[in-house]
Design goal:
With about 190 residues, the protein is of the alpha/beta class. It has one domain (about 5-145): Rossmann fold (3-Layer(aba) Sandwich), CATH 3.40.50. The chain contains 8 helices and 6 strands; from the N terminus they run βαβαβαβααβαβαα. The chain has helices at about 15-25, 50-60, 75-80, 90-95, 105-110, 125-130, 150-160, 170-180; strands spanning about 5-10, 30-40, 65-70, 85-90, 110-115, 140. A 6-stranded parallel sheet has the order 3-2-1-4-5-6. Helix 2 runs antiparallel to helix 8.
Amino acid sequence: MTVGLLGGTFNPPHNGHARLASCARERFELGRLLALVSVAPPHKRVDVDADVRLRLAELALADAEVVRDENPYSIDTVKGHGDDAIFLVGADQLANFLSWREPDEILEYVRLGVATRPGYPHDELDHVLERLRRPERVELFDMEPVPISSSEVREKVARGEPIDDLVPAAVAREIERLGLYRRDPRYAVPA
């Protein structure tokens, strides 16, 4: 059974995450999909508690098993899932893959499933693949683009703009209920 691993801060999860999960499930015929919510990523500051982000990911990715990822680095996250597991990333992440901690070792533990948009210039990724010991462990697949970022969602919420077209409806309702990402100090995440 092939396991898909979709990691991230999910701060918040958006329609792009949901689309990637759906496309990967179909493309790789995944038996299981694990959404790994990074508790304390070393590369960015996250103000929203991991348990809240975990709940948001559960709402966004109903067909995935959503779990806390206590590991700060992907190399530690991918160990123990079997060498047929697929770590799912976008093309932008592959473009920066050589800067990750131990990229070649990651490919010893898992394959990399890289979502690209139709017409994406794959030659931009070739320089990364050429430098990897096991480029055959990287598989590119096209996915219709979903031009959304979590920072865009946070910014829209902070400005009081609707996000219904950016996140699943249940996620939008939970963000509203909890008052997440608002600049107004009256909104705070309940303890």
